[in-house]
TrEMBL record:
Residues 1-244 form the Prephenate/arogenate dehydrogenase domain. Pfam families: PDH_N (PF02153). It comes from Haloplanus rubicundus. This is Prephenate dehydrogenase. The keyword Oxidoreductase applies.
């Protein structure tokens, strides 16, 4: 079974490399697709307007354009479509409406490609042999796949992505420049997290913040802690430790 990967960025290259099958890649920037194909054994680049069909079409595009991509590339999907966009409710609904008679799976690798393998969230909306084989490719590469619902996934992203990124970036913006010798285990760990987040691409993190709620809750919690005195601070501490 062959596969077309739409989007030759980091995650598109990762799934093209991980899938154990013939793969073609396309991208809005043809040069990006060509470079991806050159860097991956057995992968070829095709134009964005290709009318070639594939057993599976996998959308590795930004969150803001994934639903449009479902409609655009549905005719290229003979048997199945999946996405690795990072949001699930919208893509699942779009695939269900546009490809009612084909296999449909939404995947979210919960890691940067450089940190693979890792956990992959799965919404198997309409699974079948083609998408089962793709999921087996991911497992064979050492990834842990777990099933969820689109609603559960998107709610979880409010905490593990939007809120977490907000907290890390807020610390980075608030932190003063101090000598390295003053670092504590907590501040050193925070500095490592800042390096991880800011080592990525701003657009990716911006789209996460614009898609998922969570940032405001972090801001409200920070103000609550800043204003807390005496027993009020102790209560915040116990609540954070989940024994309040």
């Amino acid at each position: 079974m062959d596969m077309l990967v739409v989007g030759a960025g980091e995650m598109g290259r990762w799934i093209a490399h991980t899938a154990d099958r013939p793969v073609a890649v396309t991208d809005v920037d043809p040069a990006v697709a060509e470079r991806a194909a050159e860097s991956l054994d057995g992968v070829r680049a095709v134009p964005t307007d290709t009318d070639e069909t594939f057993d599976i079409v996998c959308l590795a595009v930004p969150i803001s354009v994934v639903e449009d991509a479902v409609e655009r590339y549905a005719p290229n999907a003979d048997r199945a479509m999946c996405d690795v966009s990072g949001v699930m409710t919208g893509p699942v609904e779009a695939m269900r409406a546009t490809l009612p008679d084909r296999e449909r799976v939404s995947l979210h690798p919960l890691f940067a490609a450089a940190n693979a393998p890792g956990n992959v969230a799965v919404v198997a909306d309409a699974p079948g042999p083609a998408t089962d084989a793709l999921r087996e490719d991911l497992r064979a590469a050492g990834n842990h796949l777990f099933e969820t619902t689109a609603a559960e996934h998107d709610t979880a992203m409010e905490t593990v992505q939007a809120a977490a990124h907000t907290a890390v970036l807020a610390y980075a913006l608030a932190a003063a420049d101090v000598r390295e010798e003053f670092a504590t285990p907590v501040s050193a760990a925070m500095d490592d997290l800042v390096a991880t987040v800011t080592g990525g691409t701003p657009r990716v993190y911006r789209e996460i913040q614009e898609t998922f709620a969570g940032a405001e809750r972090v801001a409200e919690a920070a103000r609550r802690i800043a204003d807390a005195e005496g027993e009020a601070f102790d209560e915040c501490y116990r609540e954070a430790r989940h024994d309040g």
